[in-house]
Amino acid sequence: MWAGFVELLRAGIFAAAHVCGGSLGGGILFVSAGVRLALLPLTLRLARNARAQQAKLATLQPEIEALQRRFANDPGRLLRETSALHAKHGIRLLTPSGLLGMAIQFPVLGGLFAAVRTGLGAKVRFLWIGDLARPDGALLLIATALTAWGISSAPNSPGQTTSQTPMLVVGVLLTAAFLWTASSAVALSAGAGSLVSVLQNWLVSRDAMKTRD
Asked: Where are the domains of the chain?
């Protein structure tokens, strides 16, 4: 079943390449962006729900800090009281919809990665890239920059006081390390996904601005 799903995505890439004038790189970009856009309603809903939870937590921070001072020497009681406060205000760190969303995303994105990683052929050219099966330094820099853009475009969480710089640095380093030995086809797919992440963050930011207005 898994192999059939991966082959279906791979066939979609070849079909998209045909539409793109025979460009396999274009097919990878088209299908990678298409898969992420198809998941966008789900990921956008999860992002909005997470932001709503964070807003609730921000309003409860004074009460949580009071509990921390009161039960500083009783971690068990602190955990119970904090959990009760969360439950009172409808805060659930793990929700059925969130778990379902992850259960849907991981196989789809994993299948896309498997379809792009192997089985697309060797010595396939795209733009300046001589072989999509091999890494390319310029493409690595572009894909990493797109990842940085995606991370930096995320709106601040309600009540957030810390800088996003550490997360940005970690994200860039992990992306660069992963793409260093990955094929150019994988880097193309990752770059397309990062562009959709930028779109999602813009939509969440727009929601936040409307809420403030």
From this structure: 2-212
